[in-house]
Amino acid sequence: MNLFPEYAAIIGIDWADRKHDLCLKMPDKVIAQRIKAIKSAIPLTNDPGVIEPNQLMVVALVHQLALLLGHIDHFDDRIAECFADFDDADLFSNLPGAGKQLAPRLLVAFGEDRSRFASAQALGCYAGIAPVTERSGNKSWVHWRYSCPKFLRQTFIEWTNQTVRFSFWARAFYQAQREKGKTHQMAIRALAFKWIRILWRCWQDRKPYDEARYLMALKNQGSPLVKELAN
Q1: The overall pTM is greater than 0.70
Q2: Is 1 a residue whose pLDDT tops 60?
């Protein structure tokens, strides 16, 4: 919008030399489709009373967004610096799929006080990962935990979703859950319930997670996941 605030300004442009203005990460095929769409576009209105004030508003929003992105970069830098200063940083930075975005969030989720959560179950309940079982008479039902720190729970859910791509056993477990008829979200929640127990033990023992060691433990226990991994 800064480069081309007016629709008329983009019609006569030779886009062969301006592809970088569209998106550097887009494949050539997608860029060609976008250029074709731009050239064949028909404006909804030519009324300057509608176009000009909205044009000014969009340009103002672009400037605000650019400023905001700069501040976000500053926040990211400070978070990375603070994260590196913690003794437990290595416990979370090497987790499968954590990366620079989720590792600090996971560290904050656990904290430094090992006595705060006496068990993985206590952490799971607090974070909203452990489901709730309700009973009334002869009936009982299990449901999603409603009362919990929502951002904290989302941290575990987002990271668990990434582990399906980066952890062998997590992917096998997820696929097994889907084959049982579970939805994506149900499978991720079940996987998060397993992961939080593993992370709690690593956190308590101050030992980084080792995928090879865990796979060997699954094999020694005769876990059905071993068969899934072999397929």
Answers
A1: yes
A2: no
